[in-house]
User: Which sequence fits this backbone?
């Protein structure tokens, strides 16, 4: 999200986009906790709309979409109420107090940007393998761009960002979709080449994270280079990332998800959820 200019005045207080960053926007993160598992899209439902003609998988996906819709509407109302309360809080302050609050928030954002830039130069590489575009539909590529954006945001907001983000096998239309997400303003390592062709990366330290890996990731070294497969697929194809690791003779491992998530969420995780787990290691 691009930073908005400060629109606060002494006569009328406006809660602008920059101030909205005080709050988390959970809408894009819903799918992290409701991953698709061989489900049909809403558009594939019976055109008559007769629920009796829907398959079990279609009914399950319909319930999922309806739940997400309710959550999004609720979150929309919560954000609206928070903006209202924040505006009232600012209006209750004198000019000096109001300026101090805004200045403090700007300083926080500036520190996050500074730390993220330093991590991009000195941090441990975190590689997004984006070579799976042919397995995805256009809407899934757009979703991938959104998940990458959420991943970068999570790293940027962490207290001490540990990772330098590498986007490899990056091509159109994903380049355009990441720009639409505002990722072009952040210092990321962008490469058209596949990760195994990017110079300066130590293959001996690479660990390809895959849900199909036979090894569970229990301990990691601080300089381990994690690779995350950029895959968004409503009907997941098994072993894509695991096979990629084997072809390139890279160690593969799966996350110990029982330590972080309920069992029902193990099968498919969004990229940003994986990154958030890595930030807790």
Assistant:
């Amino acid at each position: 999200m691009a930073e908005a200019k400060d629109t606060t005045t002494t006569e009328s207080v406006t809660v602008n986009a920059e101030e909205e960053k005080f709050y988390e926007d959970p809408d894009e993160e819903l799918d992290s906790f409701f991953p698709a598992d061989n489900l049909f899209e809403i558009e594939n439902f019976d055109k008559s709309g007769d629920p009796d003609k829907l398959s079990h998988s279609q009914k399950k996906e319909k319930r999922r979409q309806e739940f997400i819709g309710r959550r999004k509407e609720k979150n929309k109302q919560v954000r609206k109420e928070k903006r209202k309360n924040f505006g009232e809080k600012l209006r209750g302050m004198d000019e000096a107090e109001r300026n101090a609050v805004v200045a403090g928030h700007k300083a926080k954002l500036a520190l996050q940007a500074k730390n993220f830039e330093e991590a991009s130069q000195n941090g441990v590489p975190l590689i997004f393998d984006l070579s799976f575009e042919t397995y995805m539909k256009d809407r899934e590529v757009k979703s991938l761009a959104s998940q990458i954006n959420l991943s970068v945001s999570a790293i940027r907001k962490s207290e001490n960002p540990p990772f330098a983000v590498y986007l490899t096998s990056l091509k159109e239309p994903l380049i355009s979709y990441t720009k639409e997400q505002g990722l072009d303003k952040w210092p990321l390592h962008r490469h058209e080449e596949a990760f195994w062709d990017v110079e300066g990366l130590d293959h001996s330290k690479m660990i390809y994270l895959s849900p199909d890996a036979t090894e569970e990731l229990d301990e990691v070294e601080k300089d381990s280079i994690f690779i995350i497969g950029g895959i968004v697929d409503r009907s997941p194809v098994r072993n894509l990332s695991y096979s990629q690791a084997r072809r390139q003779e890279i160690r593969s491992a799966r996350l110990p998800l029982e330590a972080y998530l309920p069992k029902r969420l193990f099968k498919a995780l969004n990229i940003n959820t994986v990154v958030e787990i890595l930030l807790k290691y």
The radius of gyration is 21 Å. The longest strand covers residues 124-129. Confidence is low (pLDDT under 50) at residues 1-48. Helices lie at 17-20, 56-91, 95-122, 138-157, 174-180, 240-247, 271-278.
